[in-house]
Amino acid sequence: MDKKRSSFSGKLGFILAAAGSAVGLGNLWRFPYLAAKYGGGIFLLVYLILAVTFGFTLMIAEVAIGRKTGLSAIGAFRKLNRKYSFIGYLASLVPIIILPYYSVIGGWVVKYFSAFLSGQTSAAAQDSYFTSFIGTSTEPVLCLVIFILITAVVVFLGVEKGIEQVSKTLMPILVILTVGIAIYSITLPGAIDGLIYYVKPNLKQFSLTTVVAAMGQLFYSMSLAMGIMITYGSYMKKEVNLEQSVTQIEVFDTGIAFFAGMMIVPAVFVFNGGDGAAINAGPGLMFVTLPKVFDSMPFGTVIGTLFFLLVLFAALTSSISLMETIVSIVQDMLHWSRRLSTIIVTLFSVAVALPSSLGFGKWSGIQPLGMSFLDFFDFISNSILMPVVALLTCLFIGYVVKPKAVIEEVRLNSRFKREKLFRIMIKYIAPVCIIIILVSSILNALGIITI
Ligand code: PHE
After folding, report:
1. If we measure between CA atoms, which residue out of 383, 188, 189, 401 comes closest to residue 303?
2. Average of pLDDT values for 430-439?
3. Ligand 1 test: best mutation among 221, 323, 325, most atoms within 8 Å of CB?
4. Which pLDDT score, from 0 to 100, does residue 1 have?
5. What is the DSSP letter of 201?
6. Which of 31, 50, 239, 350 is the most exposed place for a label (fewest CB within 10 A)?
7. From CA 242, how far away is CA 386, in angstroms rounded?
8. DSSP-H helix ranges across 224-378
9. Helix or strand or coil: residue 119?
10. Burial of 48 (0-12, 13-18, 19+ CB in 10 A)
């Protein structure tokens, strides 16, 4: 490389930026309803076990190959073994597909935040508010452009001044908001039963799909298999303790997900008069159910505003990691400056986001594979590409470059405590788990099973 690669100033910068990527809509919206749906405490337990085994293995592998090669996904795989650079190309496709549609949802969050901020709480609680908003053309597009522009400014400023600085500011606020709202939520009258519903293992709801759902969620929640952790690893200094950092990111991500459940499940439970099943509102939970819940609770406008601010921060730090990954690929491949790369990536993302936004209104007649554009892009990236990339990464590390490539990197400055676990997971258990995720998400999409 001709120019010196940028880097995080120290360990905290890396951890907060990586945690910022990991903590996103997945934690705040998807985790709570999956937990409620799949047996509360039993889902939490399965998730936790998977996080310290499966999630740990994949994350440490990605961060290590990033730091070892000092390159983002494409360059990293190529440097390790020329024949396998296609894995890097595949991994890079994922953020390129995700960023545009993630920004559409980010735009919705911008809209809800401004609605609550300006006190339109009861309007936002109307049944048709969400569908009529996303069905229009101008406003959702405007919101997504605002969301992408904020993201672009941070990426434009660079790794240390932009990403690290923003993560160091936003992540502590995010933690305070999550814990604060969770505490408020469990003090609502009747909320304790909701809390019990959330944490008590309900064995009747346990089945193989619990495990599959937890595994798929983990994957997405930790921003794995899309080159993000490779890129962030490449900005990590050699003296930082890799194993410890990865553990801390996982604790952060899982902790926020747990608290998100604590803020949402009991509140919805109270609102529904003690009916747990209604929490399975799926995607409608955040934009349809929650505004009604806020409207009905004391101080709902304030809580709603803070909640959507929290979601906005979480979504922004995630979209920053997506854009940064794409920009670093463009820089590595074309040797353009960071600024030019950022501008081009921004224009591209806005253009590709348009169908995902208009797909709920003007263009709703066009349905690839019978899905809306947004669901279609989500399906291609999350259900197909990510498991394929993760599987190839495991096989590549387990059998081509061998686990020692990762182990040596981890050992540069400390003992690798979970080395045995890592070896067994990467070679045997993780590939099998990923095949299960891949097959079940395809069967789910075809309507043969439901997850
Ligand atoms: N990990 C993020 C979440 O939990 C989602 C995400 C996916 C972020 C891909 C960036 C890239 O919501």
Report:
1. 188
2. 91
3. 221
4. 42
5. B
6. 239
7. 23
8. 228-234, 242-271, 284, 290-296, 300-334, 338-358, 373-378
9. coil
10. middle
Region of residue 227 (phi > 0: left; psi between -120 and 50: alpha; otherwise: beta): left
The ligand 1 atom at the shortest distance from the C-alpha of residue 253 is: 4
Yes or no: say if 291 and 268 are a contact pair by the CB < 8 Å rule.
no
Nearest CA to ligand 1 atom 10: 318
Beta-ladder partners of 201 = 40
CA of 296 to the centre of ligand 1 (A): 30
Q: Which amino acid would we find at residue 229?
A: M
- Whether 361 shows a pLDDT value over 90: the answer reads no
Which of 245, 247, 235, 240 is closest to 69 using CA atoms?
235
Q: pLDDT at residue 38 above 90?
A: no
What is the rounded CA–CA span in Å between residue 192 and residue 374?
37
Asked if residues 144 and 350 have their Cβ atoms less than 8 Å apart, the reply is yes
pLDDT tens digits, 168-183 = 999 999 999 999 999 9
pLDDT at site 276:
66
Q: What are phi and psi of 40, to 5 degrees?
A: 55, -115
pLDDT given for residue 434 in this prediction: 92
**The pLDDT of residue 222:** 94
Using CB distances shorter than 6 Å, the residues near ligand 1 are: 21-22, 24-27, 98, 220-221, 223, 226, 228, 318, 321-322
Please provide the average confidence, as pLDDT, over all residues in the chain.
Answer: 92
Three-state secondary structure readout of 265-300: HHHHHHHCCCCHHHHCCCCHHHHHHHHHHHHHCCCH
The answer to whether the beta carbons of residues 268 and 194 sit under 8 Å apart is yes
Whether the pLDDT of residue 74 is over 50: the answer is yes
Mean pLDDT of all residues in 353-365: 90
H-type helices in 118-159, by residue range? Answer: 121-124, 129-135, 138-157
Across the chain, how many H-helices and E-strands are there? Answer: 24, 0
Q: How far apart are CA 392 and CA 53, in angstroms?
A: 18
Using pLDDT thresholds of 50, 70 and 90, give the confidence band for residue 242: very high
Ligand 1 midpoint to CA 144 (Å): 17
For residue 254, the CA-to-ligand 1 centroid distance in Å is 13
Q: What residue type is 402 in one-letter code?
A: K
SS (H, E, C) 151-199: HHHHHHHCHHHHHHHHHHHHHHHHHHHHHHHHHHHHCCCCHHHHHHHHH
